[in-house]
Design a protein that fits this description.
It contains 17 helices and 16 strands. By secondary structure, the protein is α/β, with parallel strands linked by helices. The protein starts with a helix and ends with a strand. About 10% of the residues have low confidence.
Length: about 475
């Protein structure tokens, strides 16, 4: 009895110690999310929201977001910021590794975080890198000229050049001509100012980041109190946060990061696939493949596979476009371009004018398809130009061959005999016989003159098993 009581007490103590150890280990762990050069989209918003929920469920001490993003969609950014603001666990946004940036939407996410940190050689704000191959003398390349033309057609939101020179120090609100844009801009400014105040960060620079696309290096961001610290890596970041206390209007917490365990959570397979699909370049390619496949099915009925493939590609492309700021006029221009390619094949007397018009329509439509001033969300010219040329060549080739097939004379059956030359085997006043392709045929003379034996005759028609001929 004593032995049983001893073992019961021993195991109770062991279980209590194990539970205490597990609780300590659980509380000292951090969940790590990685946004590696990805556009902020509904998929990324779902990824971050799921990470916050998992960190809370597993009683993690905090959530770390390793971030490198050029920016993204406003609604997705709002979803992420709302989730971070209301997170029950501290959220640390760490712009890393070196060479990363928190551009556009990344600024709002960093400002919403309880702790913002950056690695050396990173930047935060609106970054505008010089395009590869740009003329150092400042001369505009063809790509730049086309992009500028697109900006003009899209009625670019941000007024530049002469209007800014005339307005001087005037804010974008004062020079804007679109009341709806004013509302969006003022709302965004109020939003970033509120985040800055809530997290004790530089509100003045936050407004500059929105109105003037200001950008800072990690050292400048630290000096201007945009971020809390600069760290070379995750280990250094956790080391510097150990026993650090942070005070906010809604809460105060102290981190104990020594010997913390990191749990890395990556995008799921589903999220990776969806994130790839909503890439504007991928969605654009899928749309063109869908149109082309359906065109192949229409011109070659019964093949089935191109039709099925086309429908699948179009459904996926439209799913992606539903999440992107699509300009309907751009979509219509692409359709007009394809119609013009078909018309060129049907009416070759245009000497290529319809092909030129179709190419121009597709080019402008493709550039206008994604209606946003955010460059990273637009379709790249490196994708547009090759696909326009390829689609134009394929469509013209297919339609031309279909028309040739329709115009080609029948080579089988009775109709194939029409137009052939035969030899009269007998005199043919009304009815006689002719020799054609190794066979003797009964022939009816449809000409005005009688036909003598041995003369050449032409088959002008077929009446059941008799040939209609003329001299």
């Amino acid at each position: 009895m004593k032995k049983i009581l001893f073992f019961a007490i021993f195991f109770s103590c062991l279980l209590t110690a194990t539970a205490g150890f597990c609780e300590t280990a659980k509380g000292s762990q951090f969940l790590v999310l990685t946004i590696d050069n990805k556009i902020i989209s509904p998929v990324i918003a779902d990824y971050v929201s799921g990470g916050v929920d998992q960190a809370e469920k597993e009683s993690c001490q905090g959530l770390i977001i390793l971030m490198d993003t050029p920016g993204g969609l406003l609604e997705s950014t709002r979803t992420i910021v709302k989730k971070i603001i209301n997170s029950p666990v501290p959220v640390i946004v760490y712009v890393a590794p070196g060479g990363s940036r928190a551009g556009s939407a990344g600024v709002f996410i960093a400002y919403a975080a309880h702790i913002a940190a950056m690695a050396p050689s990173t930047n935060i704000g609106a970054a505008h890198p010089v395009a590869i191959g740009q003329n150092p003398k400042g001369e505009r390349s063809l790509r730049k000229a086309i992009e500028d033309l697109t900006e003009l057609l899209r009625l670019e939101r941000y007024k530049k050049n002469k209007k800014q020179e005339i307005a001087g120090a005037a804010s974008p609100e004062e020079i804007s001509e679109n009341p709806e844009e004013d509302k969006v801009l003022n709302d965004t400014l109020a939003w970033i100012s509120s985040l800055a105040k809530n997290r004790n960060r530089n509100a003045e620079w936050a407004r500059l980041a929105v109105t003037e696309s200001s950008s800072l290096t990690e050292k400048e961001a630290l000096e201007k109190k945009v971020i809390n610290l600069v760290a070379n890596n995750l280990d250094e970041l956790l080391g510097r946060l150990d026993n650090a206390t942070f005070i906010f209007p809604d809460r105060t917490f102290t981190l104990h990061t020594k010997d913390s365990h990191l749990i890395f959570k990556n995008l799921t397979l589903r999220q990776n696939i969806l994130n790839s699909i909503i890439n504007p370049n991928i969605a654009y390619i899928l749309m063109l493949i869908g149109f082309l496949s359906l065109f192949v099915e229409i011109t070659h009925p019964g093949v089935i596979f191109p039709g099925v493939l086309g429908l699948i590609c179009l459904v996926i492309a439209f799913y992606a476009f539903a999440m992107l700021p699509v300009n309907f006029a751009g979509f219509v221009l692409i359709l007009i371009g394809i119609i013009l390619f078909i018309a060129e094949a049907l009416t070759p007397v245009t000497f290529g004018l319809l092909t030129l018009g179709g190419a121009v329509c597709m080019l402008l439509g493709s550039l206008m398809l994604i209606d946003t001033p955010f460059a990273a969300m637009r379709i790249s010219l490196n994708v547009i130009l090759p696909f326009i040329l390829a689609v134009a060549a394929i469509v013209i080739f297919l339609v031309t061959n279909v028309m040739k097939a329709h115009r080609k004379k029948t080579t089988t059956g009775a109709d194939a005999l029409i137009g052939k030359i035969a030899t009269a085997s007998t005199d043919i006043a009304d009815v006689g016989q002719v020799f054609l392709d190794g066979e003797i045929w009964t022939a009816i003379n449809r000409g005005a003159e009688p036909i003598k034996k041995g003369e050449k005759v032409k088959v002008v028609g077929v009446d059941k098993v008799k040939l209609l001929v003329s001299k």
